[in-house]
Amino acid sequence: MKNISCGLIVLLMLACSVTPSEAQLSIGIGLPNVSIGINLPFYPQLSPVPGYPVYYAPEVNANYFFYDGMYWVYQDDNWYASSWYNGPWAFVEPYAVPLFVLRIPVRYYRQPPVYFRGWLSSAPPRWGQHWGRDWERRRGGWDRWNRHSVPKRAPRPSYQSKYTGDRYPQRIEEQHTLRSRSYRYQPRDMAVRQHIRQQADQKRAVPDQRGRHEAAPERNQRQIEPQRSAPHQQGAPAGPRTQPPQRGGEQVQRSTPPQQHAPAVREQRPQGKKDSQGSNRGQERKDNRDEDRGQNKDENRGRGHDK
Length: 307
Hints:
- The chain is an alpha+beta fold.
- Helices cover 40% and strands 11% of the residues.
- The protein has eight helices and ten strands.
- The chain starts with a helix and ends with a helix.
């Protein structure tokens, strides 16, 4: 029983020690927020590495490469990556470095580390010897590939040559916007795709502060306008008011005098009585006219008989 309990404790300790590293390794390439001391005043010259889908920068005093749409730098025993030539840079786990970046021959490292000495210049560095057996076990076969079926090189991002000095975009969301607008290449490596996706997610997470500030005056204007058009409150001095009547599609300003005191209230008679009296009087007048006409006819007839 003691042996079983000890074995369970050891397994739990191993699980606790492995879980954080596995979660970290699943990221592969972190977010670009590292400064590694590289400060290029202009867009570097990128020359192809013969037989590899990779470029290197012969004029840059660093282990500086370009592969699959991204820049790669090996410095202080660590790999860093960026989608722009002057960073900011993201740390890359040794398990997530693309295979063809690992396969770059030693001779194209402008600042090779001390432990590169004695290694064949036409062969890739001995990463298994440097990073240990665990790395070599997980990245087995990294130094074996068909040299007759090498993928094409990604196009150089020459659009970035326009952004030098103060024009260089420092914010990640701005870099991603310019890249998506000017560079149509789609990366093949899964780690590179994940990195570009992380940049896109970070861009969407950043609120547009300028849009908020521009919309604020419009909202304030909408709140002020109803107050200007509100009617005069009771007790306020009455002044001339203008009303824009419509005349032929044009607005004409017409001033109306201030309101006078309200006239005395007249006694309102029922509408029904007024109508009935008016109708009765009209009927009486009509009857009288008819009688007069009848009498005149009779008088005229009598005079005719007399004659």
